[in-house]
Write a structure and sequence with these properties.
By secondary structure, this protein is α+β, with helices and mostly antiparallel strands. Helix content is 32%, strand content 37%. The strands form 2 sheets. The chain has a 7-stranded antiparallel β-sheet. Strands 3-6 form a two-stranded antiparallel sheet. The protein is globular, with a radius of gyration of 18 Å. The chain starts with a strand and ends with a helix. GO terms for molecular function: RNA binding.
């Protein structure tokens, strides 16, 4: 069961990938297993030496949620100490962001795949689209001749 953040490939140049655990409530893991999660507008942030997943929307579980449940609350990410130190150092470089790429279940635990990336400029995005269109045209020509 995997939820992808599809817009990332278009908006960022990914440099590295990390896997992190997520601290969740009992009803949140049930909602994730039902696929009721959105990470489209989410991002990760390092605050006070800890990694946090911000703006990830986990819908309330239908069979019951605790009183005062906030579906977009910040959720702590579980990373190894040396990974966290390396991330802190890299994020201090100008223009790098920590973006959630996907959320999946691994051995009954929810995991998030984080990408360390640099945002693309508008002209880079246009060049990427042009390249993609040229590849499509080449594929059509090859299929037409074969």
């Amino acid at each position: 069961m995997i939820i992808f953040n599809r817009g990332v490939q278009f908006s960022y140049q990914l440099l590295e990938k990390f896997e992190a655990g997520i601290v969740l409530l009992g009803c949140e893991i049930k909602s994730i297993r039902n696929g009721q999660i959105s990470i489209k507008e989410s991002h990760a942030r390092i605050k006070d030496g800890e990694a946090w997943l911000m703006n990830a929307h986990i819908a309330p579980y239908a069979q019951g949620v605790p009183a005062g449940y906030d579906p977009i609350r910040p959720r702590k990410l579980l990373l190894k100490k040396n990974e966290l130190k390396r991330l802190i150092g890299k994020l201090q470089e100008q223009g790098l962001s920590l973006i959630p790429l996907s959320i999946y279940i691994k051995r009954n635990h929810a995991k998030v795949e984080l990408g360390l990336g640099r945002g693309l400029k508008k002209h880079d995005k246009r060049a990427k689209l042009k390249e993609k269109e040229l590849r499509r045209i080449e594929q059509r020509k090859l299929r037409g001749k074969g």
